[in-house]
Amino acid sequence: MQDERRPVAENPRPDPRLAPVRHGLTVNGRSVTVEAAPGTRLLYVLRNDLALNGPKYGCGLGQCGSCTVLVDGRALRSCAIPVRAAVGRRITTLEGLAEGGRLHPVQEAFIAENAAQCGYCLNGMIMTSVALLAAHPDPSEAEIRSGLQGNLCRCGTHVEILRAVRAAASRLREARTGSDGDDA
Ligand code: FES
Ligand code: FES
User: Is residue 119 in some structural domain?
Assistant: First the structure.
């Protein structure tokens, strides 16, 4: 079965002879309409039309993970998704993670652990970690490594990134326990 984190990209360049089509999207909780030629990749729409530059263009082939966004909560590679496939889905980019003016605990943990050199991979590392920790609140070391194995970091910041994900998991668990306690 194909790994959904690594979709095989079709030609990412839309056919310029095809007229743009209107697409209604929900991005970071906001409804937007964009005009894009059929086949345009979601990454281009996010960056060029919506000025959401969290997702990065790395390989453009679904291989590096730097363009990762959440689609209905799943970490997917926006360079490999045609924008039409995102219609009717909930799209979250790095810019949409913060709530109430506060960064997501995964973002805070990456900052606290200095988990960056050039930072190019960080969007993908953070978005993938958010999805990973939502599915596995108490991940084993093997689950963290396996969850992030498709995201490439050319700077070799892996040790700090792994530490940040472990710290974020622990913060999220504490927050959950605290709110459970508040509810009781
Ligand atoms: S730019 Fe999308 S996976 Fe590399
Ligand atoms: S920090 Fe540079 S690619 Fe990861």
Answer: yes
